[in-house]
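Supplementary Note 3. Input sequence used for the single-chain structure prediction.
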Amino acid sequence: MIHEISVFLVVELVGTVAFACSGAMVAIEKRLDLLGVIVLGVITAVGGGMIRDILIGTRPPSLFLNPVYVATALIAVLILFFIMKFSRRCQDLLYSETYEGMMNFMDAIGLGVFTVVGMDTAINAGYGEYRFLMVFLGVITGVGGGILRDIMAVQTPYVLKKHIYACASLAGALCYMILLPRMERDGAVVISACLVVTIRVLARKYRWNLPRIEIRDRE
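The predicted structure, written as C-alpha cells, is reproduced below.
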C-alpha cells in the first residue's frame, strides 16, 4: 500500500509541476505581475481537481485539505518566475520554437497525469461501476485547469480550438479504464498517461486538428 501511494504521489507531483509551469508561462507571456503568474500557475495545476471534487460532492475540495499540491505548484511557479526574471536567455525563448515545444510537452504531461488521477479519484470515491462518470471526471480533471487558466488570461480555451487536446485526454481515460482490470495499477497509470502525452506531441508535430468551418472575414 505504501508503495502504491508513493508511486501515485510522485506521478501527481510531476503533473502538478508541469501544469503549474504551463500556467505560469502563459501568465508571463501575457505580461502579468508576480501575483498574476502565481494565480494562473496554481489554478492550472489544481483547478481541474477542484472542479472534479465539486462535481462528486467532496467538500471542501481536497486541495484545501492536503496543501502539498498547492505548495508544490507555488514553489514551481516562483522558481520559474525568478529564472525568467533574471535570465535574458530564458526570456528570449518566449519567441522561439523551443518555447512552444516545451509548453506543449509540459501541458501534455499534466494532461496525461491528471486524466488518470481524475479517474482514480472517482474509483476511490465509490463510482468505479459508473464508467461514463469515471471517464468524464478523468477528462475534466485533465482539461479543467487549462480552461480556467485561459478564461482568466482572456483567451479562447486551448481545448476548444486546436491540436487534439480533450480527445487525447479521452483516449487516455478509455485506455486506463480498459487496462486497470487487466494489469497492476502502476502499469496502467504509466501506459495511459504516456498515451496522452504521445498523442499531444504528435498532434502538435503533425498539426492534427478536428475539422472546423472556415468562415471568411467580413470585408
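Residues 97-127 form the longest helix (31 residues). The two ends are 65 Å apart (CA to CA).
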